[in-house]
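Schema walk-through. Below, the input block comes first and the output block second. Nothing else is stored per chain. Lengths vary across the set, and this one has 271 residues.
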Amino acid sequence: MTDDGSTPRPVPVSKIDTSVPHSARIWNYWLGGGDNYEVDRIAGDQYREAFPGIVDVARGSRQFLVRSIRYMVRDAEVAQFLDVGTGLPTVDNTHQVAQRVNPEARIAYVDNDPLILLHANALLTSTPEGHTAYLEADLHDPERIVEAAAEHLDLGEPVGLILSGILGHVATHEEACALVRRLTAPLAPGSHVSINEGTDTDPTYCAAQAEYNASGAVPYRLRTMDEIRGYFDGLELVEPGVVPVPRWRPDPAAGQGPQDIGQAGGVARKP
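--- output ---
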């Protein structure tokens, strides 16, 4: 049951393709989750052999996500979030982080993956004061995403838009930038955008990703630091701007991994 008493629509297991590795399941494996298949673990191990730093990338991305949500709730006073490209639940999911700071926070998760639909019950939890929902939609249809989110979020008030490790799946940088603009356009002034994506700054990472993309899995494209900054065009970047994710407002009390991993991110405000 969801927090509003409805039942998520079940998805047949047959819709899940376990014959090829899947990036969300591999990411889940690297983060220590159990929602993956042998094909994902094999691909994940092969990738890690080629580029051992990928585990630091996965963990650094998750830690950045946590810090950026905390910033948006505490400092920017954002009380509702639209998380597009949710991925599989692990630890410190968006609703958990936001509602620890503000129990009344409202979260709409968006994904189009049947495996994630099967785990909707795990995602659709909430504090009694808040609200969490799961929406089935595709990044390439941002108007549909916004329309569906409006059933759960007040788009007349600021929203925290989260795009974590999803824009690299878009074929071109130009198209990815256009999708960000189409998602942010309907949001109220004062809304914030958190983005973190893989960069092409490490040749070993680039080679491992190229081998993965050639395997038949859905490709993910590493992009330059300037291209990642381009996602924030028209928005007001929060200090320190777009940087390797461990360098974005690090938590002094938490142990930090390598500082210059191939994952960059930032947070920006819609004026």
